[in-house]
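Duplicate of earlier report; MerR family transcriptional regulator input re-posted below.
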Amino acid sequence: MEEKIYFTSGEFAKLCGTTKETLRHYHNKGILMPQKKGENGYFYYEAWQFFEFDLIGLLIYAGNSLEQIREYLQAHSTERFLKLMDSSKERLLRKKAKIENMLRVVENTVSLASLGLTHDGTQLTIVPCKTEYYLTVPIKESDYENKRNLLDAFSQFWAHSAENPLIGEYPYSYVVPEESYSAGDYAIKYIAGKLDEPSEKQDIHTKRAGRYGMLFHYGSIDTAAESCRRLCEELRALNLEPSGPLYVDELISNHVTPEEKDHVTKVSIRVGR
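Output:
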């Protein structure tokens, strides 16, 4: 008969590259039980349990809970192992998609902040823009008079964006409809989030491709209407007719610095029909 080799908790923890506290936690959860208890009160593990510890580590790394692992180890088989691996794969793929989406958001947000730091946009420029898509949520006129209502509008926007993983930038964007500024009202009417690709949702707004007049607003977003008005006036002075919505994209905001004087916002509008 092959002689059994036993290790104390400390020896086994060292062998597995873990701690006695972790082994004790597994013991309490019923997933890695010591094989015997000595007269000295010490718990002992057998050598083969090294591979069981290794399996537990794999299953945890794959996103399984200790309860799921305990249930599997109570009656493990090849069929149940493959089923557990399939469910782990599906969970990891969902997690991978979330991580990839967040990487896009981080990269785009860094790019926007960098543009805000390096671009001196006090002068009107005309630039070509490609088609872009925004998830939008309306802001009522009365919301500006009640901070709670205004925060509710932002909360509604993030509830929508949580259901749409295509949001590609973190800072807020805003939209001023053509019918508003044509009547002399340059106040923001929609909260918006730029998307990486189009969506079938009804509240998706399409920004048309074309030539856009653009300038940069410095200071609080609350005063961006001044730059929106100036942009339209300067375009008309050049016999260039603004059309479609005004787009107000935050580059550097409270997310970056609390100093409103350092906030930078890009304001743009399509030129011509």
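The chain has eight helices and eleven strands.

Merging into the original ticket.
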